[in-house]
Task: inverse folding
């Protein structure tokens, strides 16, 4: 009986989790422009819209962070000069924004699924234009667990379900947002992974004011741990798995 040649199966990870079966082609933008940012521009932003995204004056490192939906401490191996270079990106699909009216009524799950598709497309763009190649490592590290404090949560019922959180200079404000979005912003503020262990599934309005630099004697605001306590929640140090995206290769962008 003739022997059969068995070829090993090669699986490529495209993010912190496999977003599609190995045989599926990753989602891509149909139209995309990538160019160095205007050095005279001061403002920077990342604005997803429908199935499209507009990025203005953002360092490559931060674009990668957004694409993989990770915090700064979860990214390793970025070449300093390349990671600091700023870019403008305009990327769209054929169905880019024709569903803007439908988005106003989308559920949290639908919004998260849509943003996941945008991020997958952005990862494909980074791969094709910058030659980005990564692998993922997981290590047990110190994290912060967000839990309900004694006495229960003190969160306001939302005026509207907008699912938006602003974070500027020690001020976090949520507008009809789930606790998962608060955990994300707390992760940015503390530089540690924040795991949502509250079990709260609703949407809320909330405000936190805290001193981002506790050594600044002029800032009389409480610590972030005390500010969280005012919401009837608590942050506690714990150990947990933290996934890190390690860059194997990234270069200058190819021509549009």
Result:
């Amino acid at each position: 009986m003739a022997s059969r040649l068995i070829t090993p199966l090669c699986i490529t990870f495209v993010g912190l989790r496999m977003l599609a079966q190995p045989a599926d082609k990753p989602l891509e933008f149909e139209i995309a422009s990538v160019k160095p940012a205007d050095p005279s521009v001061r403002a920077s932003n990342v604005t997803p819209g429908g199935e499209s995204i507009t990025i203005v004056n953002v360092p490559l490192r931060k674009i990668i962070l957004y694409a993989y939906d990770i915090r700064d401490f979860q990214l390793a191996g970025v070449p300093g000069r390349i990671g600091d270079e700023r870019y403008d990106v305009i990327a769209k699909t054929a169905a880019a924004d024709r569903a803007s009216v439908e988005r106003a009524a989308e559920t949290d799950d639908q919004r998260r699924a849509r943003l996941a598709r945008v991020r997958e497309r952005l990862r494909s763009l980074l791969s094709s234009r910058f030659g980005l190649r990564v692998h993922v490592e997981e290590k047990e590290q110190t994290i912060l667990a967000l839990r309900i404090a004694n006495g229960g949560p003190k969160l306001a019922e939302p005026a509207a379900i907008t699912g938006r959180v602003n974070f500027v200079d020690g001020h976090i404000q949520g507008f009809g947002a789930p606790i998962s979005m608060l955990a994300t912003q707390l992760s940015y503020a503390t530089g540690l992974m924040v795991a949502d262990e509250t079990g709260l599934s609703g949407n809320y309005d909330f405000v936190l004011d805290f001193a981002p630099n506790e050594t600044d004697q002029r800032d009389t605001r409480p610590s972030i741990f005390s500010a969280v306590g005012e919401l009837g929640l608590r942050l506690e140090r714990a150990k947990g798995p933290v996934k890190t995206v390690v860059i194997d290769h990234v270069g200058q962008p190819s021509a549009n």
The helical segments are 60-68, 80-84, 100-103, 108-130, 179-190, 224-229. Residues 151 and 232 are 7 Å apart (CA to CA).
